[in-house]
Amino acid sequence: MSMARKKNSVDIDLVHKLKLQVEELVGFRILISKDCLKLSELIYKSTKNNLSASTIRRLWGFESTPFSPAYATIEILQKFVDTEGSRQVLSPLAQFVIDFYQPLHFETIIADNKTFQASCRKIALLLKEQPSVFDEVKGILAKSELGRKFFYELFPDYDWLKKGLLDGYKDYLDFSTSRNDRLFGLSMFFYHAYLTHNKALMMHYAAEIREIWERESGEVHPFVLGRCFFAFLYTAKAVHWSNILGIMWMEEQMIPRRKRGLFLEFPGFHYFVCDALYQREDFVSLYQMTKVALEQFPRSEEFEWKGYYDQLKVYQTAALWKMNKKKEALSLFETVNTSSYYFISRDYYIGIYKQVKELLGVH
Fold it and tell me: Alpha-carbon distance 284 to 320, whole Å?
């Protein structure tokens, strides 16, 4: 004869309080099954204790049958709250950064406001210069939609990516759910592998990016799409080159030329694709892509002062030279100004400039 399990005499108020504390610490409410799985992973990552998604479902009342949690379940939740709560004691500078990214600070701000973006840029430079502060805030920023949008997505610093920023993108991916954001997060892992010359990891992340790009739906920003195609082109085998170029041009044709706001005025897709074509030494395609980027999109003052158009001109210079249009190449190269190259990728593109300068034999 079987007997029903005796209910544990658990303090209901304590359980309710713990659930609220957990949701506050992770930065999202537990509303659907996917949230339960995400919380289960975060609890294991923090405490090295397993609390299954099914147990979390029952604890948060997703099941119709009554549920009284085991003492061990409560202990794991309490351990998670204690562990994560202790990490919330921040230095004054870290607290300043977190306060900056609070929702109230954003209520009257338009995301495209350039003064506001300049403030975000100062925060990014501060965190780059003070790694210990970044270590304090990286996970908290990743939990916040504002932190993801206005820190991680605005400032994918190439140099910093090799020295510690990647840890923040690990947290970013834990909290990213849209196709666009997941592709962006994975592209950062690809770029880290690329910048550190890890071919095996490049192939691995290119495959992950391709799987999401092919199987999931949802709008993708041209900058993100360009990063994805950088991965596809850079890792493509010679036998597949014509095919991937065909897909690339199909995607290019769908990018609007005159949209504005949220950096859509700049040919971001073309910008990253040009780098891949340069690296793969397809100079005919590179010339065609730079012509589209430089001639079919209205110029943006912001990207002028960031030096992005000058970087595109460097790629076009290399293409012209390799196509034996050397006089044109030299004339164009003379117009390039590297002094304004934007800080998040300055050293990388200065390196490209020096390569092309050597190719031209310019002293």
Answer: 9
